[in-house]
Amino acid sequence: MEKIKKLLSDSFCDPVNYLDYLEEIGFLKPEEAFCLNGDDGPVSVLFAKKYPINIGAERFTADYIFYAATDESQRHKGHMSALIHSALSSLKTGGGDFAVVIPATKALFGFYSQFGFKTAFYCESREFYSEKADREISVLSADEAGKFYGKYYDFYGKRKNTLFKTEEIFCQSVKENLFDTENYSVLSDGENIAFASFGEKIVLREFTDENVKPFASSVSAKYARPVSVRLPSEKNGEPLGMILSYCGKAGFPPLFTDNMLN
After folding, report:
1. In whole angstroms, what is the distance from residue 261 CA to residue 123 CA?
2. Are residues 128 and 90 in the same domain?
3. Neighbours of 79 (CB within 10 A)
4. How far is CA 242 from CA 65, 111, 142, 245, in A?
5. Which three-class secondary structure state does DSSP give residue 6?
6. pLDDT of residue 135
7. pLDDT greater than 60 at residue 116
């Protein structure tokens, strides 16, 4: 696992101590890793985590593929393609119904389409700026996360077409977003939450409130900078994520997933 984390750190520029933390809170699990090994260790790696998914009245299991990386010296040799073929073959027999991936660049949409993935997730951005706060905004602590899961599940989990986190993964996500408090946070107005990425603009995601404007405007006023909100959209939005059906299902409904916006 240490060599895998070194490869991920080199590929994604994530500090090793951050990857150690993801392993500590149970987000990175060795049993969820697929590896193609060379003489000196892993050449390519990807992780696949199972999530429940609702499509209409039916309940399925989606394999969320993430942290896919190849050692820089071994790229363009077909290693990742071989690993994806092997991983998908295993995942199809492991109790899942779909595979989901979030391509890191637009070029990767074409790469994943070779394996049968189809674009099924889209988003659009709205921006807010305000000098007046309608709500008092505070930082949610890891200890408070559990009591917000019910609200989170009510908002996301009961929708007909939704991929949503379990309580365990939700609490892991809160902890993950509190690891680097200068750049990430989980904000609350006491009733609702949103995950935040700090920069010149604050990017908010995973709201638990239908009306995002008062929350986003209050965050803008609190931190004195513009706020950008990424919201699900139909196919006229920005392509965000792809899905592969193991059973050949076609004509996917408009799916919104909070994980796509992470």
Report:
1. 8
2. no
3. 18
4. 10, 11, 31, 10
5. helix
6. 93
7. yes
pLDDT of residue 121: 81
CA distance 205 to 179: 17
Helices marked H in the chain: 2-12, 16-24, 79-92, 107-113, 145-152, 167-177, 212-223
Same domain? For 157 and 244 the reply is no
Q: Are residues 117 and 83 in the same domain?
A: yes
Quick one: 98 and 110 in the same domain?
yes
Per-residue pLDDT band at 139 (split at 50, 70, 90): very high
Contact 151, 191 (CB under 8 A): yes
**In a shared domain, residues 39 and 72:** yes
Q: What CATH number has the domain bearing residue 176? A: 3.40.630.30
Number of other residues whose CB lies within 10 A of the CB of residue 60: 17
CA-nearest of 195, 177, 186 to 25 is 177
Do 207 and 136 lie in one domain? The reply is yes
The more confident residue out of 258 and 74 is: 74
What is the mean predicted confidence (pLDDT) over 86-92? 93
Q: If DSSP codes are grouped into helix, strand and coil, which group holds residue 142?
A: helix
- What's the number of domains the chain is made of? 2
Domain that holds residue 186: 124-232
Report the 10 Å Cβ neighbour count for 72: 9
Q: What is the DSSP string of 11-41?
A: HH---HHHHHHHHHTTSS-GGGEEEEEETTE
